Amino acid sequence: MLLIGMFDSPFVRRVAISANLLGIEFEHANWSVGADHSRILQHSALGRVPALLLDDGTTLTDSSAILDYLDTMVGPERALVPPSGTQRRDVMRLIALALGAAEKGREQVFERVFHSAECRHEPWLRRCCAQMNGALSELEVWRGTHPTPWMAGDRLSQADITVTCCWTLLIESVALEASQYPNLAALAGRCEALPEFIATYRPWIAPRA
Predict the structure, then answer these.
(1) For domain 85-198, which architecture applies?
(2) How many whole angstroms separate alpha carbon 130 and alpha carbon 137?
(3) Which of these, 187, 9, 7, lies nearest to 99 by C-alpha position?
(4) Contacts of 114 (CB under 8 A, 6+ apart)
(5) Between 85-114 and 122-145, two packed helices, what is the crossing angle to 10 degrees?
(6) For residues 49-62, b (16+ Cβ closer than 10 Å) or e, as one string?
(7) Per-domain residue ranges for the chain?
(8) How confident is the model at residue 30 (pLDDT cuts 50, 70, 90)?
């Protein structure tokens, strides 16, 4: 299998971390959606990352679809998203909040990078910032009211992976104060110390206009 995309993307990174945790081997194509767009288009019609090229030539796009496939490879006992029940609902909810926060952070970055100061739409920036912090606040409250070893119980799940990948991006890319969210900061620090996270960490670099 070939995983396409750079690890400074939380969407790519969460796939790589999950594969490493599950013991699924893959090759990595460190391709940029900017500099390597034409190569990515050969495998992903949308030109988006992550894209996972399977051994039979099939390409999976969108990190959620890829992660679902990885879970099916290892079976429900080892899957990083519980197969059913309340725990699955909770994990999926936490993932959605984290991804939403990351997307709203990314939109703030793009507005500032690709629009000159006089062309930036400040109401839109404020709205994205509020949405990002709204999602993070829900995650912070959840973590504070669920003092289990991990976000959704006694076992590390996709919720922990995704929250951490998104948190690290936001800390590095937007004006986010870690002190606002001590519970999330503690969780992310714990995850980032694991070898599977260390192996995939790349500092975030702002895209060029």
Answers:
(1) Up-down Bundle (1.20)
(2) 10
(3) 9
(4) 207, 209
(5) 150
(6) bbbbbeeeeeebbb
(7) 2-74, 85-198
(8) very high
**What is the reported pLDDT for 208?**
56
pLDDT in tens, 67-113: 999 999 999 999 999 999 999 999 999 999 999 999 999 888 877 77
Q: Cα(80)–Cα(23) distance, rounded to whole angstroms?
A: 12
Q: Provide the pLDDT for residue 115.
A: 67
- Closest Cα partner for 101 from 17, 203, 171, 18? 171
Class for the domain spanning 2-74: alpha beta
* Rounded Cα–Cα distance for residues 142 and 152 (Å): 9
Of 176 and 4, the structure prediction assigns the larger pLDDT to 4
Q: Please provide the average confidence, as pLDDT, over all residues in the chain.
A: 93
Kind of pairing, strands 51-53 and 2-4?
Answer: antiparallel
Enclosing H/E stretch for 4 = strand 2-4
| Contact yes or no for 132/108 (Cβ under 8 A) | yes
